[in-house]
Amino acid sequence: MLKSGRKSEVNQIDEAKMLIYRRLFFMTGATIILSASTIIYFNSIFTEDRLARVGSAFELAALTLMPYMISAVVAAITAIAVIALLPVLRGAGSAKKIQMRLREMAAGDLSGTVPSSETRGHLGSIVTELNQTVGELGRHIAQWKVVNRQQWHILQAIRQAAESGDGKEVLNQVGKMEKNWEKIVMIEERLVT
Question: Residue 65: helix, strand or coil by DSSP?
């Protein structure tokens, strides 16, 4: 179930990225077409008749540079829009990765981390904290597992000592079990539930 959900989320990430890429492609294409059209239009207006009527060098420079100035403004606006959309593209993927990682954690997988190299700013801080929290939780659970295995081995030793009638060894093993319970209490105290 987790793998099919993961594929679905990956598809959603890919679809979001493709939508942003299409918008960027459209904006770039529209800018090129608009700029070229502006230059062609202004160049077609300036036939020899109109240039003959231009009175000063300033008017000639203004009329000649006008299409290029308009094209530069359109290109600058498009560049600003593209620059504004690129972090959204990176952030969308990072947010989805965090969401997928949290779902994996809820399903019991504490083994992986979210790559923090892909995220910056506040989202990067969240990823770093999430990875540290998961790592710390994983260490506590690993300690708990070790103590739990030790308790199992101690119970086996108690059973063998009881079957052989060695009361002193039974008490020795019970003492070890009590020490392990103290370790479990310490782990539980670190984990506030």
Answer: helix
Is residue 89 a contact partner of residue 34, using CB atoms and an 8 Å limit? no
In whole angstroms, how far apart are CA 36 and each of 22, 55, 73? 21, 27, 13
CA 102 centroid distance within chain: 12
- Cα 148 to chain centroid distance, Å, stands at 35
Sign of CA dihedral 139, 140, 143, 149: negative
Among 74, 109, 144, which residue terminates a domain?
109
The amino acid sitting at 111 is S
Say whether pTM exceeds 0.85: no
How many structural domains does the chain have?
A: 2
The DSSP symbol for 120 reads -
- C-beta neighbour count of 101 within 10 angstroms: 19
Domain span at residue 81 reads 1-109
pLDDT tens for each residue of 64-111: 676 777 777 777 777 777 777 766 666 666 777 777 877 887 787 777
Could you tell me if 189 and 174 are in contact, meaning their C-beta atoms sit under 8 angstroms apart? no
CA-CA distance, 78 to 162, in Å (whole number)?
Answer: 82
Find the distance separating the first CA and the last CA of the chain, reported in whole Å. Answer: 28
Q: Domain check: are 102 and 135 in the same one?
A: no
